[in-house]
Amino acid sequence: MSPSTTHDNVYALHNPEQQFVDPIMELLRQHARTLISKAVEAEVTHFVEQYEDLVLYNGRKRVVRNGFTPERTMQTPVGPVQVKTPRVRDRGNAVDPIRFHSNILPPYLRKTRTLEELVPWLYLMGISTGQMEEAIQALLGTDAAGFSPSTVSRLKESWSDEFGLFIQRELSEHYPYIWVDGFYPAVKMEESRHCLLVVIGVKEDGHKEFLAIRDGLRESEQSWLDVLLDLQSRGLKAPNLAIGDGALGFWNALKKVFPETQGQRCWVHKTKNVLDKLPKSEQKKAKERLQDIYRASTKENAEKAWKLFVKIYEDKHERAVECLVKDKEALLCFYSFPAAHWRHIRTTNPIESTFATIGLRMGRTRGCLSRRTALAMVYKLGMCAQKRWRKISKPEMLTKLVNGSSFQDGELVENAA
Q1: Which residue in 59, 244, 257, 412 has its CB near the most CB atoms, within 10 A?
Q2: Model confidence, pTM
């Protein structure tokens, strides 16, 4: 049946009640869904890779992918988008399992995030200032019209101003734990000082926050000394514990600035370093024996597992044993801190997980960034990530540490000061 003519060039629809579908908006929604899916896939892949060294007695991986959550609707400026989050399963611990929590799609997120995070993310994905308006309109619809290159430039300037305030702020609170690490972003910078030195601290209330984001000459002692002296000058008191990898520059600098601070070496880094010195055929069993050390419930049991590892490998694989034993005190330091915090302080995961995402984004940046722009971008993405960090377990134990309480095998020593 042909449509009935009412006026010249005006036609009545067959079914007036049928909802009109805008093909352009539908295309934008499909693009948004694809973009979100790819981002979450990259996120869960990195999360699972962090725990690939954890294996069960039968050789199966402990942390694995486990399908998806039921699909849910998230409201975006281009309309409702159906999304689903990957699931991760911990097959080895039913009491306190390792869980995956997406930073991109938290469980109860129903709206997209603001331009505060979208713009630096697009910029580091390789979208130039001139292309930013088109990219944002593709994601947010026509409401983002007018987002010109000059607007992007002003935003970047404001991020630089915010970063300037961040590196000058007072640090009057006590931070019992700090995590430190150095990162080498793939993004090209105009200067050779392309190493990013990062410090995260936890306050007495259990909340973690960035203390320093600086560039440095690799991970040299002088670069770390500059970072620590700057933090000290702004009021940072000596932390009870510093957690980091084997970068010698930091530990030497720590002794000069905060000699009373104890040091905990990251078990993830140490495990990889030891296994690199073993034949591939023996690495699987060696991982299990290393895990027996740092998962022991008491330091005495850890010492027994340590001696067993040395006895098994010292004759045939002397270099692997030397790599382990040279840092024994620092690797077992966590036994003198609350047991509820062991999973937080045995590794640098609190800092590694955040900067793995930022590093991936920076690695896709085209061209060369100035030092100022790169630091501002890292700072802005870091602040966005910080908003979603979880508190450390049992923060009340942090106050006891600050007040001078002692712990043995993770338990409070009641007669201590």
Answers
A1: 244
A2: 0.69
Q: Could you tell me the two tokens for 139?
A: 């994601």
Q: How crowded is the C-beta side of 168, counted as CA atoms within 13 Å?
A: 6
Distances (CA, A) of 284 to 57, 267, 274, 281, 301: 10, 16, 12, 7, 21
Q: Residue 374 corresponds to which tokens in the numbers above?
A: 């790169």
Q: Which tokens in the block code for residue 159?
A: 């991020």
DSSP 8-state code for residue 111: B
**Which residue in the block uniquely carries the two structure tokens 């020593």?**
413
Q: What's the angle, vertex CA 271, arms to CA 266 and CA 272, rounded to 5?
A: 105
Measure the CA–CA gap between 368 and 35, rounded to whole angstroms: 25
The number of residues making up the chain comes to: 417
Question: From CA 338, how far away is CA 247, in angstroms rounded?
Answer: 25
Amino acid symbol at 412: L
CA dist., res. 112 & res. 108, Å (int) = 11
Instruction: Kindly report, residue by residue over 315-347, the tens digit of the pLDDT.
Output: 999 999 999 999 999 999 999 999 999 999 999
CB 124 within 8 A of CB 381: yes
